[in-house]
Amino acid sequence: MPKIKLEACIIPTLYCPPEKDHVTFFDTAIVGFLVEMRPNGRGTYSLRYKDEYGKQRQYKIARTADITFAEAKKEAIRIKSRVVVGKNPAEDRKANRSIPTVAELATRYLEYVKTYKRSHDIDERYLRLHVLPRYGKRHLNQLDQTELLEWFNSKVADGYAQATVNRWQVILGHMYRMAKRWGIPGAEVNPLEGVKQKDPANRIERFLTADETKRLKDAVEESPNFMLRYIVALLLLTGCRKRELLDSRWEDFSIERKSWRIPFTKTGKVRHVPLSQEAIAVLKAIPRFDDCPFVVPNPETLQPFQSIYNSWNNARIRAKLPDVRLHDLRHSCASNLVNSGQSLYVVAKVLGHAQVRTSERYAHLSSDTLLNAVNAASQLAGTTWADETWTAA
């Protein structure tokens, strides 16, 4: 085991005789730093040291063909410094090899969220199409907060909505929290811990006026999809979410109690929606299909519509309302409730919000309502302030 001063110019000259398995050359400058040569001409940089129990260990750095001598020397010094403070690089490497990749964690995470989260398919799609192609092969301890935030910002710059990118951030952060709870190595530090989501600035408050509602009604009645008229009417009259209505069953409606029981909601809780006389009239007008439990099914399949976008888009264009989304019917229902004098608490109950503050975005009052309010308040004073003497000459 010859000892020499290892240098970059010397490495190419080192060799192992054919009759030997290997020859080890130790560096005289860095204790334990060595190059091990094989008869086939391949060499390996390593560091030999003693662990905390006095047992000799050898840590493989890399093959001589894979990194430069300077890089190997720098790594040897780094490893040796860890040994000095009582660390065992070999055990650390073994532990690192047990750290799963982001893709491996994603598999376990998706199996978990399927047990309770209705929107798990959205998580799966976002992970498969966006997060995993970028970070799937990385190990959990290899994700850097700065890099992640730069990537999120770049995707917004590429045209993705901030709300969509925020969803990626939520999913990835939740994955790390669950990994830490499960005791998975590498998840001790969550790279997204404490990082606030950027404001999506997408709270589009689009409310239908009475005239727009009439135009929309006429347009959906002309639609070849004759179920669209009932769908739009019930969305506007109940304030429910699109999927809640499309998946609804007759067994969940009680005309006598004027109530609709939604068993599966966005919040995961059963919700009861009150039915107005107008909503009940629409329900009674919907044609029934034999052996079909769904309220507004696709007439061709007698199953819930997967999408009604095309028929809806054609109808809103006919009504000259190209900017109105189906979800705006929910906004309009909330606006109508507020304009009729209902409190935000009532709006929250009707729309199924877990917290009243979620309904504050619907606290839209028309100018007529505000005008009536200030007129009513001024009359309570009991005194007329303005008279003919105040009139400008």
Walk me through the topology.
Blueprint: E1 3-4, E2 23-27, E3 33-37, E4 43-50, E5 56-63, H1 69-84, H2 89-97, H3 102-113, H4 120-135, H5 145-157, H6 162-181, H7 210-221, H8 228-238, H9 242-246, E6 253-254, E7 259-262, E8 271-274, H10 277-285, H11 309-318, H12 327-339, H13 344-351, H14 367-379
Parallel strand pairs: 1-2
Antiparallel strand pairs: 2-3, 3-4, 4-5, 6-7, 7-8
Helix pairs in contact: 3-4, 4-6, 5-6, 8-10, 8-12, 12-13
Short overview:
The chain is of the alpha+beta class and 393 residues long. It has helices at residues 69-84, 89-97, 102-113, 120-135, 145-157, 162-181, 210-221, 228-238, 242-246, 277-285, 309-318, 327-339, 344-351, 367-379, and strands at residues 3-4, 23-27, 33-37, 43-50, 56-63, 253-254, 259-262, 271-274. The N and C termini lie far apart (114 Å).
Describe this structure in words.
The chain is an alpha+beta fold. About 40% of the residues lie in helices and about 10% in strands. The chain is built from 14 helices and eight strands. The strands form two sheets. The protein has a five-stranded mixed beta sheet with strand order 1-2-3-4-5, with helices on one face. A three-stranded antiparallel beta sheet has the order 6-7-8. Strand 3 and strand 4 (about 45-50) form a beta hairpin. The longest helix has 20 residues, at about 160-180. It is elongated. The chain starts with a strand and ends in a 14-residue tail after the last helix. The model has no long low-confidence stretch (mean pLDDT about 85).
